[in-house]
Amino acid sequence: DTGVSQDPRHKITKRGQNVTFRCDPISEHNRLYWYRQTLGQGPEFLTYFQNEAQLEKSRLLSDRFSAERPKGSFSTLEIQRTEQGDSAMYLCASSFPPNYLDQETQYFGPGTRLLVL
Amino acid sequence: AQSVTQLGSHVSVSEGALVLLRCNYSSSVPPYLFWYVQYPNQGLQLLLKYTTGATLVKGINGFEAEFKKSETSFHLTKPSAHMSDAAEYFCAVTQDAGNMLTFGGGTRLMVKP
After folding, report:
1. Are A42 and B104 in contact, with CB atoms under 8 Å apart?
2. Rounded Cα distance, A67 and B4, in Å
3. Looking at beta carbons, which residues of chain A come within 8 Å of B32?
4. Of A16, A18, A58, B29, most Cβ neighbours within 10 A?
5. Which tens digit of pLDDT belongs to each residue from A33-86?
């Protein structure tokens, strides 16, 4: 039973470059979430998918950020024209569909740590 | 709107001592409440959760938490700290299963030998 996986685990980039992160949820989960965690803070919600539909986006998700989940399985989070303030840990989580036992629990991946120089 | 406050960004206890990490929340509807633990450079691992029913919930590694509606609290306890408990602990709330989680700022637990 594999958990949520994220790739890459670490990314160093120069300001202005584009980066893309991937998240593979637990196979039975149809809900997928992205969070951002800056140093010394709790995670903050970015966006949420149910199957391939993006149902909610935080105001933290500026125009430079885009997330996709084209086939309702894995998801990508792209940051265009990175800024130093984008340096953070990007966490992905997934959960069971509605009406499933344990539907309320989000299972987190190991995260992708981004450093923008 | 929902919010979570964790009192004490750093808590230090001796090995074998009681662990108490505080969490207060605000929510306009009965909440789902969670405690997660995060070890350095890792993701979050669920310790325990409250959904409905019994207000005292037990989790992994000997941790438990009690939902007190009148105090809007969900404090995390463990009778006897172990060195391996040293980590960052996050309290989180959601108003609906499947919705976004709102996290507190976290509490770093240090365990002294």
Report:
1. yes
2. 27
3. 104
4. A58
5. 999 999 989 999 999 999 999 999 998 888 999 999 998 899 999 999 999 999
- For A12, the token pair is 């160093």
CB A65 within 8 A of CB A46: yes
User: Using CB atoms and an 8 Å cut-off, which of residues 84-103 of chain B contact chain A?
Assistant: 90, 92, 94, 97-103
Radius of gyration (Cα) for chain B, nearest Å? 13
Close Cβ partners of A3 (under 8 Å, ≥ 6 residues apart): A26, A107, A109
Instruction: Decide: residue B71, CB within 10 A, 0-12 exposed, 13-18 middle, 19+ buried.
Output: exposed
- What is the pLDDT confidence band of residue A99, given thresholds at 50, 70 and 90? confident
